[in-house]
Each structure stands twice: as C-alpha cells, then as structure tokens.
Amino acid sequence: MIYKDYKRVLYIDLSKEKIRIDLREDLQEYLGGVGIASKLLEENIKPDLEPLHEDQPIIFAIGACSSIFPVITKTVAMFYSPLTRDLGESYAGGRMAITLLFAGYDAVVITGKCRRPSYITIKSNDVEFKDARPIWGLSTSDTGRIIRERESGEGKRSILRIGPAGENLSSFACVCVDTYRHFGRLGLGACMGSKNLKSIVSIGDKSIDIENNKEYFKAYQTIYKKVTNTDIMGKYHDLGTSVNVLTMNEKGSLLTRNLKDNRFEHAEEISGEKFAEKNLIRKVACTSCPVGCIHIGQYRKQFDDGYDYEAISVAYDYELIFALGSYIGVGTTEDLIELIEKVEQLGFDAISAGVVLGWATEAYSNGLITNNETMLPLEFGNVENYIKALEYMGMNYNEFYKTLAKGCLTASKVYGGEEYAVQFAGNETPGYHTGYGSAVGHTVGSRHSHLCNGGYSIDQSTTEFDKEKLIEYIFNEERERCILNSLVICLFARKVYDRETILLALNSIGYNLTNDDLDHISDSIYKTKLRIKKMLDFDITKVKLPKRLFETDTSKGPIDEKTTYELISSYNEKLKEYMS
Amino acid sequence: MAKVLRADGMNKCIGCYSCMLSCSAVNYKSHSLEKSRIMVKTSGGIRGRFTATVCVACKDERACEEACPSGALEKRVGGGVLLNKDKCIGCGKCVSACIVGAVFFDTESQKPIICKHCGVCPNFCPHECLRMEEVEDDI
Predict the structure, then answer these.
(1) What are phi and psi of A556, to 5 degrees?
(2) Which of A91, A201, A260, A369 is 20 to 30 A off residue A487, Cα-Cα?
(3) Which alpha helices (H) appear in A261-376, and where do they start and end?
(4) What is the DSSP annotation of A395-424?
(5) Stretch B56-83: mean pLDDT, rounded?
(6) Which residues in chain A show pLDDT less than 70?
(7) Distances in Å between the alpha carbon of B89 and those of A384, B36, B60, B70, B92?
(8) Quick one: pLDDT band at residue B1, thresholds 50, 70, 90?
(9) Do A509 and A571 sit in the same domain of this protein?
C-alpha cells in the first residue's frame, strides 16, 4: 500500500467463498504491478495441472503508485496461459487500477471455481459472491449493462466481464474491462470461464491520506505538465496508434492476407486518417490519464429501406485494424467496425481472432479445410462470413471451430498449414513485420508480444543490422519494462517515465529509491518471470517459427530463418548467463 | 470580481478524473475520488456521455445554507457557500437540501464536502470542460 511498508493482498477462494488478507512486507522488494504479480504467480501456480484447472490462480496487481500520477493507469493480470501453456501476462486500462487502489488492495489472487456461474464484487469493506446464472451466455455489453444497473459505486467502479468466448473456454478469450479496455492477450477470459466467473466488479470507495502533500503535488504537477504540455504523447492524443497503418504499409510491414503480403492495397481506406475523417466521434481516457487515447469510431448502418439506421460504436486501434483489416483483406472502416463489434461482444482477443481467421482462410483456399468444417466459404474480405465464423467459434459450433478457438498453432497441428500459422510460441502475431527485431523480440519476450521489448522499434530506428546490439537492446528493454510494468504505467507513456521521473514520483510518496535500486528491482522481477517459464518447461530454443515469416519481406527486406534462430540462441545464452 | 466554477464543456470530457484527483489532493490532502468536491461520472456506462456534478453557485437564496441548523454555511461572495467546519455538527441536512446533488458527505470526518470555487480543477482539465467565470459580487 502507498505509505505502508507492506503490500495488501486479497486472496479469494471461489470454491469455498472465503477470503483472506495478507500484509506482505516481503513483496516490497518487487515494487508493485508485474513484480508482485510475478511473485504471487510463482507461489500459486500449479505446473503439474492443466492451465484451466480450477486450482490455477489468476493474479491481478496494481502498481507502486497507481492512478495518483498521470498515465499510471493499468492493472496487470498474470496467469497460466491456455494459449501458450506458458506464462500469461496481460494489461488493461480503464478504471480497474484506481478502484483496486481505493478498495485498499495491491493485488488479488483468485483460486477455485464457483459452484455455479457467479460474479464477485470487491469493496473496501466487503467481498460478495453473487449469482450470474441468468447472464451466463450474454455478450460483454449486456453483462456490463445489467451489472451496472445492479451494483453501487457509480463512477468509482470497474466492471470486468467475459463473453461467450470465455465461457466456452476459447484459448484466446479476453476479459472486457469497462466497455472499451481489455485484458486482451493470452486467454485470461478462458481462465475466468473455467472458474465459472462471469464478472468481477471492483469499487473504489475509500481514500488515502497524503503524507507529504507539498512534495507529492509538486511531482504530480511536473508530470502532468510533461504529459499535457509537451509533444511526447502527441501521437496517442491525435490520431492514436492507428496512425501506424499508413506508415507500416509504406514500409512494407503491414501484415496482409495472412502475411502473404506486406502491403495492403486498401491501407488508405482503413487508415487512422480515414477513421478520423469518417467515423471518429469522441475520445475517452482511462482514469487518471489526461491524454485520452481511446478513439471511438461510429458506423451508421442502414438496416432497412428508407431511414432505418442503427449505430455501432467501437474503440479502434492499430492492432485491431491490422488483425481484423489487412490481415483478412478487409478494406473499409465500416466493415472493420462491424468485425470489432462482433469480436468485442463475443469476448475474443481481437488480434488472435483476426490471425486465426487469416490462417483458416488460407487453409480453406488450399483445401485443408472445406465447407464441411467451416460451414461457409472463408474468403479474404468476406465480412459477412467472417462474422458468422466468429459466432461459430464463440459457441464451439463444431469440432473445427472448437479447435480454431484454441489458436492457429493448435488448429494447424490438426488440419495442417503450420508453416503459415503466424504465431510466436502459440501466441498469434502482433501487427509488426519489421525485421529481425520483431521476429526475435516476439519469440524471446516473456509474453511473446511486441509489448515485451518493442523489438520492432529497433528495426524501425536503426539502419544497420548488428546482431549483438539487437540482442542487447531487446534484453535491456525487457528488463526496463519490468520497472515500467511494476508501476504499472501505460506503455504509451514510456518516454514520459524515464528513470528520473520514476524516481521523482516514487520518492515524493515516501519511497527512498535510487537508480541502482531500480536496476536491482528489475532484475528480481525479470528473473522471477524466467523462473516461472522454466517451471512450465518453456525453452525459447524449442520455439518453431512459421515459414511464412521468412517468405514475406519485412520493411528491411527478407529475414533469414537461420539467422533468426541464431539470434534466439544467442539470447538464450545471454539468459543462461544472467540466471547463473 | 468573484469567480465561480462552471462545468459547461462536458461534451469534451474524456473521463480522466484529473479534476477529482487534484481537488482531493489540494483541498483534503488525500488521494481520493470520495473527497472530491466535483463528481464526474458516466450516464449509462462509458458509452454514454460524461457528466459533472458541481456546485452551481446559487445566488440570493442558498438552499444548503437555509437548511443548515448551526450556521456552519455562510454565503460566499459571487455564489455558493463556505463551510465553517468548527460550527458544523455533521447532520447532513445540507446534502438533502441541494437538489443538484453537489453537496457530498465525507463519512470519515462526518462533514459535508462543498465546493468553494477555488479554481484547482480547471487547471487540471485537459479539455477545458471546466472553467472559472467572473461574476458580480452579490453580497
């Protein structure tokens, strides 16, 4: 807790409907967020049991100074990923962090399984277990609406919920947070579904006295000004991450039609600029972020002749545009909005959903799967059929869709086409095909995501390819992000929170840390994550990358398979040395 | 000239709550959403618009002041009231008297939370949803 010498951890046993609170002084050395979540996962994970076994834990943690400084908005979730069967680590914005802070918890550990579909409410003075049978099967939006109408704490609460995808245990089911944010990747939705847990409501209903208001508020103002009066956050405030669409396309890094191409002829039609011009209606923010990067796009759809319209509004971002757009040949903002809405309601990770559809479309065109499996033709750009396919996948309609809902690696092992199932250690590719940095970064990153180490960034910012420098960059960034994620800042603000600013924030609220301390903390965290991966028998040198990565040019031209594996091997050597 | 807070740009609100956090920090030395003198919330979830409940700075007759049995609320120049905590007995009659809902109640101190139009929150609003307006002195 802020101003305390311990972390306050709430343990919830869903089977027994009991809670326990531990005051953990020993967790202080992990700072917060991903640090304490890693430690709690290490303590509670059961490597011998299946990822969706009821005894597996779900950990949520907020950061060391969550919500009381600008853009420190995220909550981290850690779990045993059903998608990769490896460390699961996912982040969501919205209001969860501030509500947990004001409910009085640094972390929540959830184990067991509700005896019937249920939801839980977490307040500072109570944790309640409630019947969710009538809402089991409902979309994420209907679930949110019903719970919103039933629960207290308006404006000071966060509502997490899963959709049918999570209930039906899709390995890439997401958890929707406060309508527009998500624990997107690696299947936390399935973890909740396996526990019969439809929703978690956290209500931030208490306050925390500030110990040194002068120092704190000075630091707050400094950081607020840095966020709002400089250009650092400009990209996110203006067009948002969707500004990347045209840039990536121009460079030849925009994954298109299951990565058969690296440029999309309709990129302009689905660009951030086009969205802004045609569909953008407003921007919203996570709590305590003055940037407001959440871009809401609306599509006015005619549903009957005359003047009959319905309005669909969704949050859009670069990753959604690539996955549900260029990756499956969808070239208009309207079609994209419809697909995003469907994915959202069902509760899938949008990136994985698009990428598995990309794989399935190619497998269909190659005859590996037919109408017998898919029930309808899967063709690049055929939005109507993709929407039906998503519904089939959400409901485990048949054996094929049930398998597809386990991810493209699993599906390709059953139906073939592994060479073009574009995933890294089981996690569907993010939207960067920039060079060795992205390929290696995604593979060695502790959660196999561009959010681990931004390998794509070094591809974009360097002209010469230097193996040692690349490995060094990825390694250092992986470590540094342990600190950023122990705070848990929004990574869009990583240039705001340099070491000096991190120390300014932390020390103004009573920490007494130095730069060396931060180095030490980041090592403790990274090593904990690596120990968990080892416990789960994960070995980066055994990751098999799809051939497609080496067949389609990146922005740097082709990347060589052998060199890529050599780089992964070098990284592994570095890790061995690091851990010895 | 006195100044009063106006929340008439709420269509531009992104829901960052910086106004509430800064209000609590400055006025109550507290990290809090509960102790803010302005309350932002959504109408119908985040898909709905954001609204701000804020003291409208009543002039002439102030219902909260009239309802106060102990004389703890005094008319503020320009509109609204000022709370004298030492005179307040924590009865909460001012809370129910304000039909705007802008008199909040601090369950910890058992005193009302009432905006004194200090001007902190507009300084931390990134979109000018909030502003200070100069008004005639009325008393």
Answers:
(1) -100, 15
(2) A201
(3) 272-278, 318-324, 333-346, 350-365, 371-374
(4) TT-SHHHHHHTT-HHHHHHHHS-GGG--EE
(5) 96
(6) none
(7) 65, 20, 24, 7, 8
(8) confident
(9) yes
The token pair at A406 is 């386990």
Q: Of the candidates A179, A207, A287, which has its C-beta nearest B16's C-beta?
A: A287
Report CB contact under 8 Å: B15, A287. yes
The DSSP bridge partners found for residue A283 are: A295
How far is Cα A8 from Cα A357, in angstroms, rounded to an integer?
42
CATH of the domain at A457: 1.10.599.10
CB contact (8 A) between residue B124 and residue A289: no
Q: How many residues can be counted in chain B?
A: 139
DSSP 8-state assignment for residue A32: S
- The enclosing domain of A263 has a CATH number of 1.10.569.10
- Given 3-state DSSP classes, what are the helix, strand and coil percentages for chain A, each rounded to the nearest 5? 45, 20, 35
Q: Is residue A228 part of a domain?
A: no
B16 contacts A290? CB cut-off 8 A:
yes
Q: How far is B14 from A283, CA to CA, in rounded Å? A: 6
Rounded CA separation B107/A265 (Å): 60
Substitution target from B11, B30, B33, B105 for chain A, most A beta carbons within 10 A: B33
Question: Which helix (DSSP H) or strand (DSSP E) does residue A297 occupy?
Answer: strand A294-304
Domain containing A87 — which CATH number? 3.60.9.10
Closest residue in B to A147 (Cα–Cα):
B45
Give the CA-trace dihedral at B109, B111, B113, B117, to 10 degrees: -110
Pairwise CA distance, residues A501 & A203, whole Å: 29
Q: Are A161 and A290 in the same domain?
A: no
Whether B31 contacts chain A with CB within 8 A: yes
3-state SS of B52-86 is EECCCCCCCCCHHHHHCCCCCEEECCCCCEEECCC
How far apart CA A558 and CA A568 sit, in angstroms, is 17
Q: Say if residue A567 is in the same domain as residue A525.
A: yes
Q: Could you list the residue range(s) of the whole structural domain that residue A64 is in?
A: 7-203
The count of domains in chain A is: 3
